[in-house]
Design the sequence.
């Protein structure tokens, strides 16, 4: 296709993240979506057990060993629903930018950054477990950013809760009205197919799935009218009709306006492992989710899709290619057209940045990107000096708001096991800190050789040690320090705070002053006794 304007190209695009609690099947679903879009021929299983493939998106040794995702990856693919003329009416497919996020609670900071770069989210819920703490935490982030959410109840092929119970739980826990658009036929653990619901919420078609060997290929679909479905599936169909009708009469029906406003969430039941319902998820993403739009920069200037090129860095990742010491910055294009090789300006330093090496990256697979449009995610190679939240632009000046940092809860000192490796150690600390694996805190008392790592979860410390060893050949020693609370402070308050028992003042890598406090009781005491001192909360605290 000949490139059209950024506005037309943006209409074709859907930029999405998948959010869930660990082990809800997020990487498996990512792979199932890629399979249905014919990006890959055969799906692997997420846990890299003997004789089974690890999913394409989980590339780090640690990820494959533990069966969890610890760093986000982006996958771009084209998809055109059957019978659709596409977003622009010319039969051209939609372009889906799917960003896979870490589900493990220790990596919620990386997930948070990803959520600043997408226009919609798939919330994945385990049919047996329902809403779990991490799902709730991520949902609140989506809510605060007005990100529309499509809910997918996964693992319907296993025993689990009743569909009505799950919907009640969503409504009660997250103040979001679930509006099913596909309803399961067959209880959890006995999944036959889905009833497609019409605009009024009533079943108008039955889609039956057939299992394939190990769920590694697309599940065949057969379509039935309501009358034929009743004859074919009897009581299971009757139950599905009864339950969905009950919800329709209660007004739990999809409304595009309410969905985009973040008040309702379309619901689909699926089994990513068996590839049941995956087609329907893809159709819903392109049919319901919003396309990219322009946004305001920090000066309040609106950047329209047609304006000069601008983009936000939302993630920096080093060491993705073990053969090369590389550093990749992932940017989301906000406005204009990106062309590989263009020289752009880094808003934070006003320095030029050459984009000669621009890639799409999914797991270890990389492809060169020649052009990109609003909503697209592009990896820039050798991105020294770029950090999450930075802006790149060409022509019309742009600088978008920075990405707030999460409130860390765990703190530990990091030092090189051998002084002979100090130089490599410092380089590693600077690079991993800039990448955002952990927040790096320093002060004069501890010196540069004993920086403090601040993290959302302790697994982040293990990742730092593993990457120091694998990528920089540095063995390290980690020692926990007795603080549990972090607060932002300022130069006027720091001296007095530093004199208090149970408080230590640090400078974060971005220049912010951070007070570490022994516990919440000590914090309450300081706020009561010294109310004039600055102790601001960090996000998601």
Sequence:
């Amino acid at each position: 296709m000949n490139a059209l304007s950024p506005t037309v190209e943006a209409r074709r695009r859907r930029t999405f993240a998948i959010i869930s609690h660990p082990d809800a099947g997020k990487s498996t679903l990512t792979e199932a979506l890629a399979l249905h879009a014919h990006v890959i021929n055969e799906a692997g299983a997420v846990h890299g057990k003997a004789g089974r493939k690890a999913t394409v998106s989980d590339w780090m040794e640690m990820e494959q060993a533990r069966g969890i995702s610890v760093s986000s990856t982006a996958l771009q693919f084209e998809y055109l629903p059957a019978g659709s003329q596409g977003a622009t009416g010319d039969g051209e497919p939609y372009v889906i930018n799917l960003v896979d996020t870490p589900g493990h609670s220790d990596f919620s900071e990386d997930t948070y950054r990803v959520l600043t770069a997408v226009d919609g989210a798939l919330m994945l819920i385990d049919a047996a477990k329902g809403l779990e703490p991490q799902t709730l935490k991520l949902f609140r982030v989506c809510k605060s950013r007005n990100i529309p959410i499509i809910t997918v109840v996964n693992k319907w092929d296993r025993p689990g809760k009743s569909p009505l119970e799950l919907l009640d739980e969503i409504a009660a826990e997250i103040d979001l009205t679930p509006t099913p658009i596909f309803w399961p036929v067959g209880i959890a653990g006995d999944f036959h197919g889905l009833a497609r619901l019409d605009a009024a919420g009533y079943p108008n078609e039955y889609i039956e799935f057939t299992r394939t060997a190990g769920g590694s290929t697309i599940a065949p679909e057969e379509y039935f009218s309501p009358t034929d479905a009743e004859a074919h599936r009897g009581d299971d169909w009757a139950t599905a009709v009864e339950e969905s009708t009950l919800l329709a009469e209660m007004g739990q029906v999809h409304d595009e306006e309410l969905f985009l406003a973040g008040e309702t969430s379309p619901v689909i039941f699926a089994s990513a492992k068996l590839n049941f319902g995956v087609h329907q998820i893809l159709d819903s993403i392109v049919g319901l989710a919003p396309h990219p739009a322009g946004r305001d920069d920090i000066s309040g200037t609106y950047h329209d899709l047609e304006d000069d090129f601008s983009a936000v860095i939302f993630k920096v990742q080093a060491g993705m290619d073990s053969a090369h010491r590389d550093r990749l910055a992932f940017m989301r294009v906000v406005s204009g057209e990106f062309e590989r090789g263009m020289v752009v300006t880094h808003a934070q330093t006003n320095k030029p940045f050459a984009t000669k090496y621009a890639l799409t990256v999914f797991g270890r697979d990389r492809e060169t990107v020649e052009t990109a449009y609003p909503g697209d995610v592009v990896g820039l190679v050798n991105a020294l000096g770029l950090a999450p939240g930075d802006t790149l632009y060409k022509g019309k000046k742009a600088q978008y708001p920075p990405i707030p940092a999460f409130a860390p809860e765990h703190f530990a000192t990091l030092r090189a096991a051998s002084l002979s490796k100090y130089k490599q150690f410092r380089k590693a600390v600077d690079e991993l800190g800039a990448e955002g694996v952990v927040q790096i805190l320093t002060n004069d008392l501890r010196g540069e050789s004993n920086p403090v790592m601040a993290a959302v979860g302790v697994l982040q410390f293990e990742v730092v040690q593993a990457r120091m060893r694998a990528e920089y050949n540095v063995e390290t020693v980690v020692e926990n320090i007795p603080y549990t609370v972090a607060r932002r402070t300022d130069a006027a308050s720091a001296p007095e705070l530093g004199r208090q028992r149970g408080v230590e003042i640090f400078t974060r890598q971005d220049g912010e002053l951070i007070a570490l406090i022994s516990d919440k009781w000590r914090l309450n005491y300081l706020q009561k006794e010294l109310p004039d001192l600055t102790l601001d909360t960090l996000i998601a605290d």
About this structure: Residues 295-393 form a domain with the Elongation Factor Tu (Ef-tu); domain 3 fold (CATH 2.40.30.10). The CA atoms of residues 36 and 279 lie 7 Å apart. The chain has 13 helices and 30 strands.
